[in-house]
Design a protein that fits this description.
Layout (H helix, E strand, L loop, with lengths): L1 H13 L2 H6 L4 E6 L2 E7 L5 H12 L6 E7 L3 E8 L8 H6 L22 E4 L12 E4 L13 E7 L1 H8 L3 E4 L2 E5 L4 E7 L2
Length: about 190
């Protein structure tokens, strides 16, 4: 009996705390000018997307960007435009604040994760495999975005009330660009939660 107990301890000892931590989904804290949002990423179902997002987090790329597109019946989008949009008057002003990104990634939509309320997903152009840094958080159930469309890769686990605050900010149109908050909703930082 004692030998069997020691063997079990030996097996457990072979599993380092780091190995056990790797089994958990990574979480990040999005600190915004309107409050904090905690997000859990799904590295099992969206490994490429999760790794890409975390690489931008590690680079502090998101720090000082804004939620630049807010549609209260759809989603809040950010992660690629620097603050200062409240003074922008033209599309050129808007484009000047766009940050240079890494190459686009493969779209992992159709991974079983849904664009439900609170789900975080990658923004992209009309090209399927065009997502880079920009992401959005769904503020309603957007199942129409599921399938081979927009890749959900995690969910808000706390701070939905902050998402709701952001959803309700006043917006305006800058020439052809609509749904831009009148006052910047700043992403102060995005950091990994240990």
């Amino acid at each position: 009996m004692l030998t069997r107990f020691l063997m079990v301890l030996g097996v457990l000892g072979a599993i380092s705390p780091g190995t056990m931590a790797q089994e958990k989904n990574p979480q990040v804290l999005i600190k915004t000018s309107l409050g904090d949002i905690k997000v859990e990423l799904d590295k099992k179902n969206a490994p490429i997307t999760t790794a890409n997002f975390l690489s931008y987090v590690d680079d502090k790329f998101y720090d000082g960007t804004v939620f630049h597109r807010v549609i209260p019946t759809f989603m809040i989008q950010g992660g690629g435009i620097e603050k200062g949009l409240q003074t922008a008057k033209t599309m050129e002003d808007f484009e000047k604040r766009q940050k240079k990104t890494k190459p686009p990634i493969k779209n992992e939509s159709g991974n079983g994760l849904s664009n439900a309320i609170g789900a975080i997903a990658m923004a992209r152009t009309s090209e399927l495999d065009s997502a880079t840094s920009q992401f959005f958080i769904n503020v309603v159930d957007n199942e129409r975005l599921d399938g081979a469309k927009y890749c959900a890769f995690g969910k808000v686990v706390s701070g939905l009330e902050v998402v709701d605050k952001i959803r309700k900010v006043k917006t305006r149109t800058i020439q052809a660009i609509g749904d831009v908050p009148v006052v910047d909703v700043v992403i102060i930082s995005i950091t990994k939660i240990p």
